[in-house]
Amino acid sequence: MDNFTFYSPTWFQFGKDAEALTGACVKKFGGKKALLHYGGGSVVRSGLLDRVKKSLDAEGISYVELGGAKPNPLSGKVYEGIELARKEKVDFVIGIGGGSAIDSSKAIAFGALYDGDFWDFYDGTQGQVQESLPIGVVLTLAATGSEASTDAVITNENGMYKRCADGDVLRPKFAIMNPELTCTLPPYQTASGAFDMLSHCMERYFSHTPEVEFTDRLLEACMLTILKEGKRAMLEPDNYDARANLMWCGTISHNNVTGVGRAQDWGTHHMENELSTHYGCSHGAGLAILTPSWMKYAMKTQGTERFVMFATRIFGCQMDYEHPEATALEGIERLQVFIKDVLKLPTTISEIGGKMEDVPELARSMFHGAPNHGNFVKLTPEIAEEIYRAAME
Amino acid sequence: MDNFTFYSPTWFQFGKDAEALTGACVKKFGGKKALLHYGGGSVVRSGLLDRVKKSLDAEGISYVELGGAKPNPLSGKVYEGIELARKEKVDFVIGIGGGSAIDSSKAIAFGALYDGDFWDFYDGTQGQVQESLPIGVVLTLAATGSEASTDAVITNENGMYKRCADGDVLRPKFAIMNPELTCTLPPYQTASGAFDMLSHCMERYFSHTPEVEFTDRLLEACMLTILKEGKRAMLEPDNYDARANLMWCGTISHNNVTGVGRAQDWGTHHMENELSTHYGCSHGAGLAILTPSWMKYAMKTQGTERFVMFATRIFGCQMDYEHPEATALEGIERLQVFIKDVLKLPTTISEIGGKMEDVPELARSMFHGAPNHGNFVKLTPEIAEEIYRAAME
């Protein structure tokens, strides 16, 4: 096991009607004037925004609003938010929505305190984010884990490429998590969220670091939960307990308590960024398309051991001691069945509009200003092309 | 799943030589003058105390010292520490050692800011602790989870009874966790620590709250790790990775990420307090003695379902569908084998010097000023007596 630090200071307010405590949470962390950032649509229609405002009013916290956060959030909206945050002198930024509204809020929150261009933290000009306005979250989607993570993923509109900024100060001060808010999600979003969190586990599980029994077991706990509760949430969208288990699991799958002390991969996530950017699929759908092909490549080049563990412990495959690679492959096949039959997500790039001739451009774009991707499998443009091609049809 | 809040803001500095960063951690959280509290003995002899002081010196942090924290820490030492903390105007309290030094440090830290008697937070005069000097920890024993918990257990010398204070402010600001420091522990302490953390999982696992799949799975992850790495640590005390997995597992087993959204029991812990107080055994040994008897009583009165889960998922027992109670009992038997043959802990109260005629006094003392114990099994003095008697020989 490697040395590590772990720090997850977010206050989680979890359960039915939790959004009524948004104002109390802002007050707890010293906020007086907040920028509310959200997508629009369902946050407004469902009355959630009004309930959040009511709770802020009750605590005497003033606010300004910025709607229009999009899936795969864009740099332009961040600049708009930074300008508004500065002009209105807010001391808190609250993201209301899923990972997109939250990541956009995070970028606004640290961008507002930074003299230069916030993109400096995305293109390598600056290192980790060191300073930020405090961030709060009202979560409406169990998926990205951004409610507890150090990350903020933004797409640069000037070239349409997705990058990630990172820093302990980007962990939200509080996260309001009401599973009821996720009961009305369309199946595609539920499924995409479930696969995103499964991928957060897999990016950590496939590691060469030896002697990581405990985090292996925690990751398996998360993955088993996603398989069970993801399926229930698809079959019974209104099932509060399925939604609640999935939501808390999404947080723990990505606050890194499961990933400390070990190398992590993240190659599939980086490859996926190109799919959602180029074809407009959800992040989770893009991951579902790529993951089995990545696994087959990884198994071939890095050995079957971890894939056999995955097959037996997660999908309950019987170990074939004479042919462990058959067991490993069976695990991947069962994952594909879960993706297709349970989550009903696409399984090929062509299904989302990609063509074989796009592959070189996907790989080029992925490595644009970012030379290193992956760890368990150290990706090169050639390897990325091979995996993209395998996932094409 | 029940509504909940979760808040674990401790900075964990984990790995080899981590104690060299004690000074940096105090500085990070704004400390200028610390009270160092420890037991003595190995903390001094091993050179750990000197290394901690050196790291404080390097950051210009001054300190005063208070040794003499005992296993099952006593109220007298807390009063002494409170007086010293006030006189020296320290702004940080650092516990160096296992759960005892840490809990004693926590009580000193909040007692120093409280005008009345710190015991008010133990006897029900006051509720949760709301204010405390910041607490830091240099952990030398994987066991109590106090490095991340909200608890501080102290024994009142005036009557020799153990009680627990609680509050979010008792979560340490930082915890220095170097698994190397645990490699020299005597087997009895290693085993006691391992069983204490196993018990932290079991107190949460045996719950009537329905639909808690995710925390069930997390608890199973912890328990499987304790069985594997606890055994390795007993057989190969110097095995760094066994110690490291066990240490991180001890923290996560008790920071409550595994226990949110569900009722928890804690009856065995309360019963155990009497054994360690009356007979001077370690807390973990007392828990090992009582747990199988508690389980048999609980199974008989609360149904076999959770005990069958425990048997099949933790000890790999084959399910007997015709006789589920046989499966449940087999799980308890395998736990007893683990306690006796792997951990080499005592299995009866008589082994630690107890006699059948002590039982009424144990039960009386347990309920002294504390009428409610247990949740999965709601204990009465009569039920406690029955379990004590079953564990006697």
Task: Please supply descriptive tags for the structure shown above.
ADH_Fe/GldA (chains A, B), about 400 residues, Dehydroquinate synthase-like, alpha domain, two-stranded antiparallel sheet, Rossmann fold, butanol dehydrogenase (NAD+) activity (chains A, B), BDH-like (chains A, B), 14 helices, homodimer, Iron-containing alcohol dehydrogenase (chains A, B), about 45% helix, 2 domains, alpha/beta
SSE inventory with pairings:
Two copies of one chain form a homodimer.
Chain A: E1 4-14, H1 22-28, E2 33-38, H2 42-45, H3 48-58, E3 62-66, H4 75-88, E4 92-97, H5 99-111, E5 135-139, E6 151-156, E7 161-166, E8 174-177, H6 187-205, H7 213-235, H8 240-252, H9 267-279, H10 283-302, H11 305-315, H12 324-342, H13 359-367, H14 381-390
Parallel strand pairs in A: 1-8, 2-3, 2-4, 4-5, 5-8
Antiparallel strand pairs in A: 6-7
Helix pairs in contact in A: 1-3, 4-5, 6-7, 6-8, 6-10, 7-8, 9-10, 9-13, 10-12, 11-12, 13-14
Molecular structure report:
Two copies of one chain form a homodimer. Chain A is built from 14 helices and eight strands. Chain A is α/β, with parallel strands linked by helices and 393 residues long. Chain A has two domains: 11-181, Rossmann fold, CATH 3.40.50.1970; 187-390, Up-down Bundle (Dehydroquinate synthase-like, alpha domain). In chain A, strand 4, helix 5 and strand 5 (135-139) form a beta-alpha-beta unit. The first copy, chain A, is globular and about 70 Å long. In chain A, 58% of the residues are buried. The mean pLDDT of chain A is 97. At the A-B interface, strand 1, helix 7 and helix 8 of A face strand 1, helix 7 and helix 8 of B.
